[in-house]
Specification:
The protein is mainly beta. It is built from 1 helix and 16 strands. It is globular, with a radius of gyration of 16 Å. Keywords: Signal.
Length: about 210
């Protein structure tokens, strides 16, 4: 099966949090928005599939999101909960916007595992190449870890985009692709202010042909 580039910028959930003026920890209120099987879709060849959390683990024992199961078969559906996070009163919201959303209705938050909503999809790094996505403890306080858990809507509310930074500006972009390593994991490369050329997206709702 041929895989193309992944693009987090068009999907549905860019998740970034604006840091408060002080160094104090602030807890963000997150509520479940909807539940779906998390999917990927390649615009290069119109290929698509689900994401497995039972194939590989990183050196910290965290499940890595892969497009294949251990036996090499396509990943089976796994349900995730998309959460929308509002800032505490008196602080800036995600992406620097209050109520976890933009004026055009696009919203931001975390992607939590439905069967254990204390675990969220988390990038293994920021501003580097070869980033994987794993399941790690959800962080609802402003922190460096929380920056790795920010996703936001990208295209018509059906795709999600990894942000990894505080505001929804285009100064920090990531290109996504499907790796060639074991399990064909999803990988992201930081490209800075360069326009992302990713052509694979995380689908949040239905497959494009459904």
């Amino acid at each position: 099966m041929k895989f193309g580039l992944l693009s987090f910028a068009a999907l549905a959930v860019a998740i970034c949090q604006a840091a408060p003026a002080s160094n104090a920890k602030h807890t963000y209120n997150c509520t479940a928005y909807s539940t779906h099987d998390l999917k990927w879709h390649s615009l290069d060849n119109d290929d698509f599939g689900y994401l497995s959390i039972s194939n590989l683990k990183d050196d910290q024992g965290r499940p890595i999101l892969t497009t294949l199961e251990k036996d090499g078969s396509p990943a089976k559906p796994v349900k995730f909960v998309r959460t929308i996070c509002d800032p505490p009163e008196g602080t800036k919201g995600y992406m620097g916007i209050g109520k976890g959303s933009k004026s055009n209705g696009v919203s931001f938050g975390h992607i939590a595992l439905e069967s254990d909503q204390s675990k969220c999809v988390t990038a293994t790094g920021l501003e580097k190449k070869g980033i994987n996505f794993v399941l790690d403890k959800c962080h609802k306080q402003n922190s460096a870890v929380q920056l790795k858990q920010f996703f936001g809507e990208a295209v018509n509310g059906i795709t999600l985009n990894f942000m990894g930074h505080k505001y929804g500006s285009q100064d920090k972009n990531y290109e996504l692709h499907i790796g060639k390593g074991k399990g064909n994991p999803i990988e992201a490369d930081f490209v800075g202010s360069k326009q992302s050329n990713s052509s694979v997206f995380f689908y949040w709702l239905k497959f494009p042909n459904q």
